[in-house]
Design a protein that fits this description.
The structure holds 2 protein chains of 2 kinds. In chain A, helix 7 packs antiparallel against helix 9 and helix 7 runs antiparallel to helix 13. Chain A is built from 14 helices and 5 strands. Chain A is α/β, with parallel strands linked by helices. A 5-stranded mixed beta sheet of chain A has the order 2-1-3-4-5. The two termini of chain A are about 30 Å apart. Chain A folds into 2 domains: about 240 residues, no CATH class; about 110 residues, abc type-2 transporter like domain (abc type-2 transporter like fold). By secondary structure, chain B is α/β, with parallel strands linked by helices. Chain B has a domain of about 160 residues: P-loop containing nucleotide triphosphate hydrolases (Rossmann fold, 3-Layer(aba) Sandwich), CATH 3.40.50.300. Chain B contains 9 helices and 10 strands. In chain B, helix 3 packs across helix 4 and helix 5 runs parallel beside helix 6. The chains are: A alpha/beta, B alpha/beta. At the A-B interface, helix 1 and helix 8 of A face helix 2, strand 6 and helix 3 of B.
């Protein structure tokens, strides 16, 4: 046990004495949260929209004015024919096209129902979700006013290509994503680099020739990064609650359980990478390309899984971060407890068990050669 | 000969079709300085790794410090020291921290570690460098420190894998003085080297060619046997027979 303690202390020295790396480890989560929360926000202002209005009556004019008046939208084109919509999108002239039904006011007055179609440029699914959300709420409030003023239950039927995102705030979807990314980065990438560094410098051989059990070696590498990840989780949650005003709606305990599980998965991945490669550069490349990119692209952090092609959807199921991010969204944003994430919980548990077993085996095989 | 602390009989290691170590048999006595020579790729490092418990042999017998290399590698590890080809200390730890770490790994108590640290710092003349980061020491000092750390826990045997690579002749000489001091204390020294002048410092040497031990005796006896003026000549005569390509 004393052996082990001495060894963990050494690992902390490695980290704390490399000031640059340590700053990156501790500051990066803050920067990412700020960046994702504010700068790369999908809360958009002054988005270019186009209108196709075959009715040209009082109601559509009022709606058009409201859209124009909001700070979100700027109307750049009034279209003469629906045939030009495709072209408008392709040239990037507008990101959203509002298409009113014909005889809009007449239908609204007589049948109580009229339709509006919202077409969003779906190349950026997140942003288009947000845009259609904004437009819908503007139209919705118009409908409500109309109803209240005239006492008739008017309905404006909205048709959108996108799924409705009830929380139009982007930070809601980014906080869980950043948590997944940071854990992968610190636990998988840094652990693998730290182990491979010992291979590269030759100290690994000396340690293996010592009576210290190899499992200590692995655990001692993992503990500091575990501590740092937990610290970073704390930072992220504090920032998200107090700066981005994204509360932890569900059970904190559930959040902790699922996070620890995910950290375990990431540590096992790091160990696996360290057994497979010989240099720090290779470890960084493998974990960067093999772990970070899928987390960014396929975990649902940035692009919704629902709007991926089936093949990628299937592939995303293999990515641990996908399950983690989904679970964190449920617990943190939707306010559910552990029972609601049993699927994510069991998938992550299975992944953790499999990866820990495989990585320990790989490590042992390497020792015996 | 004195009591054997390393003993092997037909020790063999194969990687697939490739026989890295081919039926080697030898004994090393307690307190001896045993030179383990061979060209690159001759199988020295593999043989040494087997003796250190880092690799399992394919066949043959062997004991190190009285423990079986198949079944008791954990016991072996407690009784040996090892200094790898690459620099084997932590550059971002201070001199005394490296000592404490390795002392701790070998299960020494804090008091033992403290006393031993003082002794070694004094012996090496490093007393002022206690708090220096190892990174900042000159290469020769680092090597001497690495050796002292490898025998910090007073092992029965110390394995040195090309310990003086890239070090100037004066420092190499000083390094060998440390080796002699350790041998005089009864620590058996098993050393691989590329430098033939160093081979002369050893009590006995073995020369490996293509995984086999082709010669084994004291430097003087080997010179006589091969009618050579120096060890370089002996080595060249044997190395010429090698079939295996150097990788």
């Amino acid at each position: 046990m004393k052996q082990f303690a001495a060894f963990i202390q050494k690992e902390f020295f490695h980290i704390f004495r490399d000031v640059r790396t340590m700053m990156i480890l501790l500051v990066m989560p803050v920067v990412q949260i700020i960046l994702f929360g504010f700068a790369i926000t999908t809360e958009v202002n002054n988005v270019r929209i186009a209108i196709f209005d075959p009715s040209k009556d009082a109601a559509t004019r009022q709606l058009t004015e409201r859209l124009e008046a909001s700070r979100y939208f700027t109307i750049v084109r009034i279209l003469d024919s629906p045939d030009t919509i495709d072209e408008i999108f392709r040239r990037g002239e507008a990101q959203l096209v509002v298409v009113f039904g014909d005889r809009f006011q007449e239908k609204l007055q007589h049948t109580g129902e009229a339709s509006v179609q919202l077409l969003a440029d779906a190349t950026d699914p997140n942003q288009s979700t947000t845009l259609t959300g904004y437009a819908s709420s503007i139209i919705g409030s118009y409908q409500q006013e109309l109803t209240e003023r005239q006492g008739i239950p008017y309905r404006i039927l909205l048709e959108t290509r996108m799924l409705y995102n009830p929380q139009i705030k982007s930070a809601y979807s980014f906080v869980p994503g950043v948590m997944g990314l940071i854990v992968m980065l610190i636990c998988a990438m840094m652990t693998s680099i730290a182990i491979v560094r010992e291979k590269e410098t030759g100290t690994m051989e000396v340690l293996l020739a010592s009576p210290m059990p190899p499992i200590y070696l692995i655990l001692a590498k993992a503990v500091p990064y575990l501590v740092i990840s937990i610290f970073n989780m704390g930072t992220i949650l504090l920032l998200s609650v107090f700066v981005l005003h994204v509360p932890i709606a569900g059970s904190f305990f559930g959040l902790a359980v699922i996070s620890i599980l995910f950290i375990l998965v990431a540590l096992a991945l790091g160990l696996m990478i360290s057994s497979a490669v010989e240099t720090q550069v290779a470890a960084m490349l493998v974990s960067g390309a093999g772990l970070m990119t899928p987390v960014m692209m396929l975990s649902g952090m940035i692009f919704p899984i629902e709007s991926m092609p089936p093949l990628l959807q299937w592939f995303s199921a293999l990515i641990p971060a996908r399950w983690y991010i989904a679970a964190v969204r449920k617990i943190m944003i939707q306010g559910l407890d552990l029972r609601a994430v049993w699927l994510e919980l069991s998938v992550l548990t299975a992944m953790a068990a499999a990866l820990v077993t495989i990585s320990l085996k790989m490590f042992k095989i390497r020792l015996n050669n | 000969m004195r009591e054997a602390v390393i003993y092997t009989e037909k020790l063999t290691k194969r990687f697939g079709d490739f026989t890295a170590v081919d039926h080697i048999s030898f004994e090393v006595g307690a307190g001896e300085i045993f030179g383990f020579l061979g060209a690159n790729g001759a199988g020295k490092t593999t043989a040494m790794r087997i003796l250190c418990g880092l690799s399992r042999p394919t066949s043959g017998k062997g004991t190190v410090a009285g423990f079986d290399i198949y079944r008791q590698s954990e016991e072996i590890k407690k009784h040996i020291g090892y200094m790898s080809q690459k620099f084997s200390l932590y550059e971002d730890l201070k001199v005394w921290e490296n000592m404490r770490l390795f002392g701790g790994i070998y299960g020494m108590s804090s008091r033992q570690i403290g006393e031993k640290t003082e002794t070694i710092l004094k012996e090496l003349g490093f007393a002022d460098e206690r708090n220096t980061m190892v990174r900042k020491l000159p290469l020769g000092w680092k090597q001497k420190l690495a050796f002292s750390v490898s025998i910090f826990h007073e092992p029965k045997i110390v394995f040195l894998d090309e310990p003086t690579g890239g070090v100037d002749p004066v420092t190499r000489r000083q390094f060998w003085e440390l080796i002699y001091q350790a041998a005089n204390r009864g620590i058996t020294v098993f050393v691989t080297t590329h430098y033939m002048d160093e081979a002369e410092y050893c009590g006995r040497i073995s020369i490996m060619v293509d995984g086999r031990i082709e010669a084994l005796d004291s430097p003087a006896a080997l010179r006589q046997q091969f009618r050579a003026a120096n060890m370089e000549d002996v080595f060249q005569q044997l190395a010429r027979k090698a079939v295996r390509k150097v990788d």
